[in-house]
Amino acid sequence: MTSFFAYDELTWPEVADLPRDLSLVIPLGSGYDLELLASALGNPPRVGLLPPIPFGWRSSGLELPEAVFFPYVANLLDSLRDDGFSRVYCLTPQGLDPQFFQRSTLNVERLSQPHSSHYAAKSVLPPDSERGKVILIPIGHTEQHGYHLPLSVDTLIIDAIAQGTASQVATRITALPVMPYGVSTHRSSFAATLNAGGRAFEDFWVAVIDVLAARGFDRFYFMSGHGGNMSFLVNIVKYAGERHRRIFCATAFLHTAGPIGAAAIEKYRTSPIGGMGHACELETSFMLHLRPDLCHMERVVDETDFVTTPSYYMDWIEGGALVANPPWDDDSKTGAYGAGSHATAEKGRLWLEAAIEEKIGHVEEIHEQHERREQRRNEGYGLWGPGK
Fold first, then answer.
1. What is the pTM of this model?
2. What is the residue extent of each domain of the chain?
3. Which of 95, 103, 151, 335 fits 8 for a cystine, CB–CB 3.0-4.6 Å?
């Protein structure tokens, strides 16, 4: 009997200890028959399931060009191979073009089976009736978070913020399913971290905006739970704004980082500057509130030995004039940046409330920006002229 486990619920040392001939599977969507999957793999004792990719392929409800979708998937599979895993697969619904995976020179192993995915049953593409709302696009990641937190931290946190925002202002927004994979340029420093690749990431999300804008949606908010996504999201927003001149597409630095979030952090934190960055007081508190079952507080190691200078230092709201990307393991022995031991579930609850309040404010600003700009355009402001 094959047992399946969730790869993203492990910590990075647990992934480092996995046998390298273990089968690891990234599904396109969900709802697959695991008995059929086990049989296709030869009924091994254990199989690791990675988080499903929610959309992008044919019949997913939000279909992207193959030349854009394929590199995103291939880079994720290559991340696992780079960590030494030899049996890495992409699980696809039956009927996906078999040439899809053969058009690349990369060696991608593919499994397929008939299934009823909930992403197919409930279309990812918002219905036309949702036009005029801000489309929330939450993006997390699957990456190491020190000894005490699982790989799913960034995805779980940003999904909770997105869902909390959507539930409070449902008439103003609609949300896409959270994407559990982003960019980690540092992925080789510690085991288990995946990387969609910066260029593939940018191409993928610009293509998502292309599809949605072509359907008449005109307000978008990329919400990231992972710092490694941020510089690429800035590029995506710039590309999207140039390609589609009648939309308003925005992002923000992570979450809990604007005036509302900064005030809440300052009010409740107990760690000094340097105590918040990654697997830190903030993220650990969120996780103790959202998923305490995945937290291993007995394994916490506070890491605050970041090489700090006046213009370059680490904290949740980064400071200083310098932007750099030194090797992750220059400043951390365990993969964490910050003081996770200061975390509590109550702080997590309070900071989640602040993060949601902050995002609601951003949604309202996006609406205001789009509406005021459209009014100017329609009045023929500047170079727009009448009828443009």
1. 0.94
2. 1-115, 259-349
3. 151
